[in-house]
Every structure is written in C-alpha cells, then in structure tokens.
Amino acid sequence: SNDAGEIRRQVEFYFSDSNLPCDAFLLAETGGHANKPIPIKTIHNFKRMRHFQPFSAVVDAIKGSDFLEVNDKDEVFRKEPLDSKFTDDPKENDKLLTSVSMGRSIYAKGFGEETDSSAFDIEEFFSPYGVRSVRLRRQQDGTFKGSVFVEFQDEAAATQFLEMEEKPKYNDKELLTMSKRQYVDTKVNAIHEGTVQPRSPKQWGNNRENRRGGDRGGRGRGRGDRRDRGDRR
C-alpha cells in the first residue's frame, strides 16, 4: 500500500505520547526528551510498516505530517519534544499512561480468527469514533484472542461508544463491549472466586501481549526491543 494517510497515522502513532514513552526501543533511539531523529528506513523495517511501498511513498507521506518533521537525511523526529512528565524509564511511563488511559479505554470481543488484515480491519472499524489506539490481545502462544482494548481520545468518547443504542457490527456480528475498568474488575473478581486462574509472573513474561519484546507490528504501546513487536496499535 502507498496510502499516505494510513502511513502517516501509523508513524505518528509510533512517536505519539501514547506509544513513544513506553516503547523501550524508540525511547532509547530518540533519547526521549532529546528528540533525536531516527532514520525512516529504521521505521520502515518494522513489521507493520513493511507492506507500505515504495519507500519513497513512506518518506513523502511523513513529510505531510503536522506532528513530525523530516530532515534532509530522511530522518524523522517530533516537531515538539516529549512532554516533561515522562521519564527515561519505559516501565514508569507505562504505569503513568495506564492510570491515565483506563477511564477512556474499553474492552471489545467477537472479532473471530485472525487474518493477515485483521489489525488494519479492526483499526478501520473503530476509526470513526475517535480512538487513540487499538491493541489486539493474544494468548501465550501468540494466538489472537478475538478481543481488543481500545483507547479513545477521552472518557466521554469511550462512554458515548458504549452507550450507543445501536452499536456497529463487525462483519455483521455483534460485539461484547464494556469499559476496560469493568473488564479488569470482572477478571479480579473471577480470580478471587476461583473461576479464573491467575497467571504466574513467568507466564506474564512469556505472553506476547505483555512481554517486552516480540513483534514491532502494530500501533500500540511499545514494550519492545529491536525485534519486531506483535499487533499493538
């Protein structure tokens, strides 16, 4: 694809306040508040970016961004440095963003088995409703759970979506939706009641959805190193 709008949205998310502070690789490469430029070729090598071709189309698309700058070396950086509230520690930044984003996030289930275009299709499905990110959830072996966490622009937008009288259907199928807070509370109660077994720290570390590593594939809060990360948006 050489869709300029799609390319810009993807790259802008990588550098956004929702992703950059918690993406170990990008945070280190940019130097955080130092806002150092990164070669666009590095970004283009991310799994999620590889289907955007040719490379010149990627460069041209980013040049049209109101959020990012491109220098004469085809390197990209933010027009405004990272907010001072963030630190150089992606784990601490993740805690900060999680506390802030909980109220504006929802859980949605019913997307079926994963296809090559699932990540893009699901993002497109939610795009009319003002979202910041869509994160595909995965089993320990990397299998898509058929559910996602969606972060909206604000809590009002998330509430509005949940309270729609006729919620949109995905491929003509109704979705199970609830606030992320409600989902988390439900899981905690189930663990206390013994109907759900909590994961051990080792299991959490191996889970592609939560580990710091894996595919650098989607628009999502990066917990990755130089390897590609999965379907995080």
TrEMBL record:
<feature type="domain" description="HTH La-type RNA-binding">
    <location>
        <begin position="1"/>
        <end position="87"/>
    </location>
</feature>
<dbReference type="GO" id="GO:0005634">
    <property type="term" value="C:nucleus"/>
</dbReference>
<feature type="region of interest" description="Disordered">
    <location>
        <begin position="191"/>
        <end position="233"/>
    </location>
</feature>
<dbReference type="InterPro" id="IPR000504">
    <property type="entry name" value="RRM_dom"/>
</dbReference>
<feature type="domain" description="RRM">
    <location>
        <begin position="104"/>
        <end position="189"/>
    </location>
</feature>
<feature type="compositionally biased region" description="Basic and acidic residues">
    <location>
        <begin position="208"/>
        <end position="233"/>
    </location>
</feature>
<keyword id="KW-0694">RNA-binding</keyword>
<dbReference type="InterPro" id="IPR035979">
    <property type="entry name" value="RBD_domain_sf"/>
</dbReference>
<dbReference type="InterPro" id="IPR012677">
    <property type="entry name" value="Nucleotide-bd_a/b_plait_sf"/>
</dbReference>
<dbReference type="GO" id="GO:0006396">
    <property type="term" value="P:RNA processing"/>
</dbReference>
<dbReference type="InterPro" id="IPR006630">
    <property type="entry name" value="La_HTH"/>
</dbReference>
<dbReference type="InterPro" id="IPR036388">
    <property type="entry name" value="WH-like_DNA-bd_sf"/>
</dbReference>
<dbReference type="InterPro" id="IPR002344">
    <property type="entry name" value="Lupus_La"/>
</dbReference>
<dbReference type="GO" id="GO:0003729">
    <property type="term" value="F:mRNA binding"/>
</dbReference>
<dbReference type="GO" id="GO:1990904">
    <property type="term" value="C:ribonucleoprotein complex"/>
</dbReference>
<dbReference type="InterPro" id="IPR045180">
    <property type="entry name" value="La_dom_prot"/>
</dbReference>
<protein>
    <recommendedName>
        <fullName>HTH La-type RNA-binding domain-containing protein</fullName>
    </recommendedName>
</protein>
<keyword id="KW-0539">Nucleus</keyword>
<dbReference type="Pfam" id="PF05383">
    <property type="entry name" value="La"/>
</dbReference>
<dbReference type="InterPro" id="IPR036390">
    <property type="entry name" value="WH_DNA-bd_sf"/>
</dbReference>
<dbReference type="Pfam" id="PF00076">
    <property type="entry name" value="RRM_1"/>
</dbReference>
<feature type="compositionally biased region" description="Polar residues">
    <location>
        <begin position="197"/>
        <end position="207"/>
    </location>
</feature>
